[in-house]
Amino acid sequence: MKITKIYYLFLSLFLIVVLPSCNNDDSNVPNAELRMVYYSVDQNDGADPSEIGLYQYNLGNDYSERVSFNSIDYISGISEDGGIYYRYADDISAKYWRKLSTAYIPIPFPESDNDNTVYEYIFSPILAGDFKGNYCAYFVNKKQAGNPDPLSDRPTLLIYNNVTLAVQLIDFKEFCLENMTDYDVDMIIPYGENMVISTGGAEIWFQVCAFKEGETLPGDTLFQLYKWSQGELLSFGDPIKQKSELLGYDPINRELILSLEDKYYHQVSTGEFLPLGLSFSTKSNLKMFAGSVNQYVFWSDFGIEKGYIQGETEEIISWEELKTKYSEIENDSEKLIFEKNDKISIAADGEYVICAFPTKADETLFDIILFSADGKDFRRIAKDVCCGAPVISGPIQK
Prior knowledge:
Layout: H1 2-24, E1 36-41, E2 53-58, E3 63-68, E4 72-78, E5 84-88, E6 95-98, E7 104-106, E8 117-121, E9 128-129, E10 135-144, E11 154-161, E12 166-171, H2 173-179, E13 187-197, E14 203-211, E15 222-229, E16 232-240, E17 245-250, E18 255-259, E19 264-269, E20 272-279, E21 295-299, E22 303-308, E23 313-318, H3 319-330, E24 344-346, E25 352-358, E26 366-372, E27 378-385, E28 391-392
Antiparallel strand pairs: 1-2, 1-28, 2-3, 4-5, 5-6, 6-7, 8-10, 9-10, 10-11, 11-12, 13-14, 14-15, 15-16, 17-18, 18-19, 19-20, 21-22, 22-23, 24-25, 25-26, 26-27
């Protein structure tokens, strides 16, 4: 009897000590902090209709699932509390925000305040979200019902705080026209889906194009950069005929990063466009910028590198290392085409990079690879999928 009691006591102590350590010692999950990956599988990318949707991968438990069965047009990013902003491809008016613990929350659309006013989306704009999960913004057009004259339209910036549920509508037409009194223009519209929200959501940058209604010729359109900050609309620089691509936000210097047609990065500072000396030729997509630090990720002859807005660069992983580490998973280093493409993103804190490479057998199929900047974590999270650019979160607040 004493032997039996001693045996059970020993077994209990063994289970208490060993089992928790087994749960934490998962070779596939060297860092168990909660981070989420999202990627879309779309029929336009060649996917089978039965596979389309939004997919979610949890780094904490190495678990993947499909969370939406709709075709997703755009994923703008993942917030610190696990929220994600995206838009359905088959319905431009259905813009959604999703949290881990909830279903799909439609982003509000302004209702007509009287029978004479109607609203419509402009250019099916993207949802731009900051990495704290509080704000999103997009453009709508306020029109007079029954009035087909475009000169009566009033493009409007809509800002939504999904914590307070507050909605702001900023009519910027008159401000822009007054800012361009020296130019013969009478039409102002936002330039496509060009928008950046600062990390804390305090600043929203966007670009408008201005022209003379009915008289504009190719090349005559003017472009002007604006910032909405703390209830005030500010213009930057003079109207120019160069389109800018708004790329990201430098949270340290609180400045916008953009590219002009010279294909170099510029930093907007006190109304001037200051060239940073960084070539735009290595750009992959708008998610290359880390939202919480002044870093970005880019392709090079070496492989994948991380750069700092101030000019320094840091090698993350070489082409040869990519092949070697991948072969440890697939046992076939020649399966993928390891070349730079537009499917690469960096986490908000700069600690993880995610990218996708096509297969040699079928270049419409991709394997999605994720790795940490320190090289300690490398894994494939999906294989043989027709995917868009994947995005990865920073550490999510539990």
